[in-house]
Amino acid sequence: MQLSSLVSLAALAAAAPTHVKQARQAPTDADILNYALTLEHLEDTFYRQGLANFTEQHFAEAGYNSTFYNNLKTVSMDESTHVSFLTQALTAAGATPVAECTYSFPVTDVHSFLATASVLEGVGVSAYLGAAASILSKTYLTAAASILTVESRHSAYIRANLQPPESPFPQPFDDPLSLNQVYTLASPFIASCPETNPTLPVKAFPMLTASSTDMPIKQGSTVTLATQPGVNVVTQSPGMPVYGAFITVTGAVTVAATENAMGGFDVVVPAGVNGQSYVVLTGCNTTMVTDDVVAAGPAVLEVNFSLLESFWNIVLTNCCLDR
Fold it and tell me: Which of 76, 107, 161, 202 is found 20 to 30 A from 312 (Cα to Cα)?
């Protein structure tokens, strides 16, 4: 995926919906299902609008055959089914399901549509993965997991069919994101929501964009992280060093963040980071980067898949499993 596509996603004005709980409280299962429904509404609308705007002929002119186009229609139907399923589950539980919002997507052609789809599917996978630990009901957990696996298939299929293609499985583990981190990435697409929508216990952190002159980005590349104009990075301990924390399933990989002349921060992509990845700015040099210490982000960046590192990951994993 071109970095310009990722930058354009993060650079949208953060017109977040008004119904957001600011109080700190543990989310209920209904909150989490409504959070999932919020994302499914977004994806559902995205595909319906995209496939209405771009015909099979448009896809053919962009280099895609009818099989791919029809598979995208199946992906779209999956998202609509997810919306119906979560809406019915919330209603059956006596909760009010959130309704569809009004959205704004940075899509101008087939290629930008697919680039955006790839990012949204990747974020969806990370969203379900991150929320799973907070779901108390085993029934809801199983339902969410069944959606997660399908979103993962969507992500892999679209990644493999981008131009140029990206690895459908660039690393052995996906990266979990917190509710607030996902909301930060989703909120720029949301222009407004119905006043009747129930509030959600989420907040958006300051937006963060990633750019680099070393393309494609890979491990060892220097990446510049920048907030929106006029937004300063405020950590829990002002004056202390700032770090870039790359989110992974085993904990954050933190690296030094050096302030540059433009007011942004330069970080070096560490080993062990591949594929669609997420990085936040924080004042804490720790693997446990919770929402309490996030100063900005996450930013989304695509780290070029390293076949050699993947090989050694497999070797080391098998070695440890054998023991």
Answer: 161
Task: Look up residue 172 and give its amino acid.
Answer: P
What's the rounded mean pLDDT across residues 308-318? 47
Other C-beta atoms lying within 10 Å of the C-beta of residue 177: 24
* Contact (Cβ atoms closer than 8 angstroms) between residue 298 and residue 225: no
Structure tokens at 45: 């609308």
Q: What six digits make up the tokens of 304? A: 């070029």
Q: What is the tens place of the pLDDT at every residue in 184-205?
A: 999 999 999 999 999 999 999 9
In the structure encoding, which two tokens stand for residue 107, read together? 């899509």
Average pLDDT of the chain to the nearest whole number: 88
For 258, the enclosing helix (H) or strand (E) is strand 253-259
What whole-number distance in Å separates Cα of residue 7 and Cα of residue 238? 27
CB 207 within 8 Å of CB 194: no
Distance of CA 18 to the CA centre of its chain: 21
Give kind and range of the element (H or E) at residue 176.
none
Per-residue pLDDT reduced to its tens digit, 39-58: 999 999 999 999 999 999 99
Task: Give one DSSP letter per residue of 57-68, joined into a string.
Answer: HHHHHTT--HHH
Within 10 angstroms of residue 219's Cβ, the number of other Cβ atoms is 15
pLDDT, one tens digit per residue, over 81-119 is 999 999 999 999 999 999 999 999 999 999 999 999 999
* H helices present in 101-210, as ranges: 110-131, 138-160, 179-186
Tokens 């590192």 sit at which residue?
309
CA 25 to chain CA mean position, Å:
23
Give the C-alpha separation, 138 to 87, whole Å: 18
Q: What is the CA radius of gyration of the chain?
A: 19
Q: Is the backbone peptide bond immediately before 164 cis, with ω within 30 degrees of 0?
A: yes
* pLDDT greater at residue 269 or residue 234: 269
Query: Which of 186, 78, 72, 70 shows the shortest CA–CA distance to 124?
Result: 186
What is the C-alpha separation between 66 and 50, in angstroms, rounded? 16
